[in-house]
Amino acid sequence: MRELLVIADKEGGKQSAFYHALEIAKNTGAKIEFVGFVHAPGVDSSEILSHEEKRKVHHNYIDRKQEVMDTFLEGIDLGDVKIHVDVVWEKSFERWVIARCDQKSFDMVFKSGHRSEAFMYTPSDWQLMRHCPEPVMIVGDKPWKEGGVVLAALDLGSTSQRTLDLNEDIMRQAIKLAGATNSEVHACYSIAVPKALADLDLIDPKTYEDKMKASLDPMIRRLVEDAGLDRSKLHLVAGKPAKEICRISQNIDADVVILGNKTRTSLRGRLLGNTAENVLHKVPSDVVVIK
């Protein structure tokens, strides 16, 4: 990895995203762009404040945030990692990050997660996952362990070129991240058994699962062999994807789960979220989302 973009926590945050990025940077020699965001509601739209007064407010907020970030960095061992610190006046940080990633290539974007957003509200984390062109790691509170596990969640249920390419990207990213964190790679896929047919006894779930495993074997073998993955570290199960990804992640004590995001913009997608969003809310490990 060469370039990492880290979104600074608000004041009082643990800066978990930065610490994870720093560990990777120390192991790979990557550079870190550490960005903080500030904004005060009503300032830009005020008809009372002059342009000069608004500018002074901007600079005051930016200078204070810069001081906080500089003080934080002075208190930790950065090793030889090169870090560029920037503070931006911006209400919607996700739009700035997406635009920045369009300007410059980053190996990964890091952000500490906020998993208790209100129902019907579209969290900024979700917007970042849906639209950022680079892989996004949403970092939780769980620390990485020595000799950890990176879990690649694959989608083998479609033969579309888009899905095939996404699976390859997921495996490639898992291998890269495992190498940068001295971890081992596992992979998983959940076979969805049609519930309506099973309820009507039109299919036997176990027979259906076995047939699906057999039909997927050539694709699985190619992915596993190309990645140099031990077949014993491939978890092929039946069930709902988000639920099974979380269960497998907990069983193998994964530090990071990597999965693809197929953007959904319908009302149903907004209400229920896609697999990536459901996993983000339930799994205790960090989540990397790839478009």
Task: Please give a quick description of this structure.
The chain has 2 domains: 3-139, Rossmann fold, CATH 3.40.50.620; 149-289, 3-Layer(aba) Sandwich (Rossmann fold). Helix content is 45%, strand content 20%.
Report what the structure shows:
The chain is α/β, with parallel strands linked by helices and 291 residues long. It folds into 2 domains: 3-139, HUPs (Rossmann fold); 149-289, Rossmann fold, CATH 3.40.50.12370. It is built from 10 helices and 10 strands. It has helices at residues 16-28, 51-74, 93-103, 124-131, 161-181, 195-199, 205-227, 241-251, 267-272, 275-282; strands at 3-7, 31-38, 83-89, 108-112, 136-139, 149-153, 184-191, 234-238, 256-260, 286-290. The protein has a 10-stranded mixed β-sheet, sandwiched between helices. Helix 3 (93-103) runs parallel beside helix 4. The two termini are 18 Å apart.
Key terms:
291 residues, alpha/beta, Rossmann fold, 2 domains, ten-stranded mixed sheet, 10 helices, 20% strand, elongated
Would you spell out the secondary-structure blueprint of this structure?
Elements: E1 3-7, H1 16-28, E2 31-38, H2 51-74, E3 83-89, H3 93-103, E4 108-112, H4 124-131, E5 136-139, E6 149-153, H5 161-181, E7 184-191, H6 195-199, H7 205-227, E8 234-238, H8 241-251, E9 256-260, H9 267-272, H10 275-282, E10 286-290
Parallel strand pairs: 1-2, 1-4, 2-3, 4-5, 6-7, 6-9, 7-8, 9-10
Antiparallel strand pairs: 5-10
GO cellular component, one term: cytoplasm
Family: Belongs to the universal stress protein A family.
Keywords: Cytoplasm
